[in-house]
Amino acid sequence: MEFLTNPNIIFYLAAYLIGGIPFGLILAKLFAGVDIKSAGSQSIGATNVLRVVKERDPKLARKLAIATVVLDALKGVLVLLVAKVAGMPDATLWAIAVLAVAGHCFSPYLMFEGGKGIATGVGVLAFMMPMVTAIALVVWFLLGKTVRISSLASLGALVTFIIASYILYPDVPNIHSHAPIWIIAIIVVYKHIPNIVRLIRGEEKRVA
Q1: Residue 48's closest CA among 84, 75, 23?
Q2: pTM, entire model
Q3: Which domain holds residue 49?
Q4: Distances from the Cα of 193 to the Cα of 88, 96, 127, 174, angstroms
């Protein structure tokens, strides 16, 4: 059991387990009395919280959606912040970032199902590469306002982040690899496959 006393392992487990907390599901059940896993897109993310709860209480839906975004973003950042203060190297921090997103998308509390990984991804990537994330968020905002399709805005922002990361950081400091970014991107794209199929068919719903 010595591996459980290894600081890296402790942080990795914390990132995955905390990342897996389904805040959207919890908030919707607690404050709106609805199970978002059996309604709407059945995702645990903020978009589905907004879509499902809005049918009962539009004002509450907005509040819960915002709370879901904030909590989903912070759960990855929390572990990264503690690890940073503890003096963990950048390689460990990037691994924590990946595991937080993996925890959200493949939650151990939901039989390894979960959300799309956008909010948690934004949180950890903002911690690791704030300037690149800011650029991606601008694209997300512009796409969200114009096309009003959440998945398209998110995927567009993801592509922007990847491109901007190579421009601003051709050689990622201390790890010399874009691998963690690609792993996060692959997870997010994988979770968006149903959305991508609907986008191709012209069936993806717009955010009202």
Answers
A1: 23
A2: 0.93
A3: 2-201
A4: 34, 24, 26, 33
